[in-house]
Amino acid sequence: MIAFRSIVFNVLFYLNLVLHVLLATLILPLPRRAMIALAKFWGRSCLWLARTVCGLKVEWRGLDKIPSGAALIAAKHQSAWDTFALMTVFDDPTYILKRELTWIPLFGWGLIKGGMIAVDRSAGKEALAGLTAHTRAALGERRQVIIFPEGTRRAPGAEPDYKLGVVPLYAACDAPCVPVALNSGLFWPRRRFLRYPGTVIVEFLDPIPAGLPRAKFFRRLQDDIETATARLISEAERANPQLVKRVVTAA
């Protein structure tokens, strides 16, 4: 039954994506906020599909800890689920993402129109300078800049691999950083088509105030996210030990 529901969901998920990409091309002449509104609607529709077809729900914790206005959001990244779900809780989100995504016809145009921050990973220090400038500009518009500090998806229970790129962003931008822990990879595993029923928990942690020394910020960011993520995985394990064992073993 899980496999059948997962197949149905994946078909509907990609049909829904195509529909929203086509709608995005129609609103390209409109202001940027129209594209953000459409992207957030797409995210909510994906959450609805996951809940309706797969029995996959979400519980948001700590929403009151998100500052109003500009903020750097540093999230654990376990699943593709994170990319569409997180945007739904912010007023004006923008993602830091690899430049190659903006080259995808139609889809990439929507990313550009929405003011996503594209990074050329091959450009070295120049890329960091451009990333910092674009992030500061987005924060100046009181946007919420979402970054995955590990750079790519990591399976639940895998050894963390935080990149230093988040540190100069934090240091250069006078804005709080909100760490985000989650356990999405237990229910939407990376590189697998199965979608398991259950409840993804996303927890927004205490904001890290601007102005901390770089090394102290980096340690606190990792410690806060990893400690909370381990707790969320343990919580899921108590509720469904077989699922957690199956997913972690297969990762």
Plain-language structure description:
There is one protein chain. By secondary structure, the protein is α/β, with parallel strands linked by helices. Helices cover 47% and strands 15% of the residues. Strands 1-7-6-2-5-3-4 form a 7-stranded mixed sheet, with helices on both faces. Strand 3 (93-98), helix 4 (107-113) and strand 4 (117-119) form a beta-alpha-beta unit. Helix 1 (2-26) runs antiparallel to helix 2 (32-54). The longest helix has 26 residues, at 214-239. The radius of gyration is 18 Å and the shape is globular. The relative contact order is 0.16.
Give keywords.
7 strands, single chain, alpha/beta, 15% strand, 7-stranded mixed beta sheet, 251 residues
Largest sheet: 7 strands, mixed
What is the approximate shape?
Answer: globular
Helix content: 40-55%
What does the radius of gyration come to?
18 Å
Write down how many β-strands occur, each being a DSSP E stretch of 2 or more residues: 7
Which structural class do the helices and strands define?
alpha/beta
What is the straight-line distance between the termini? 22 Å
β content, as a range? 5-15%
What is the residue-averaged pLDDT?
92
> Which residues sit in consecutive blocks of at least 5 with pLDDT less than 50?
none
**Helix/strand order, N-terminal first:** HHEEHEHEHEHEEHH
Number of helices: 8
Adjacency order of strands in the biggest sheet: 1-7-6-2-5-3-4
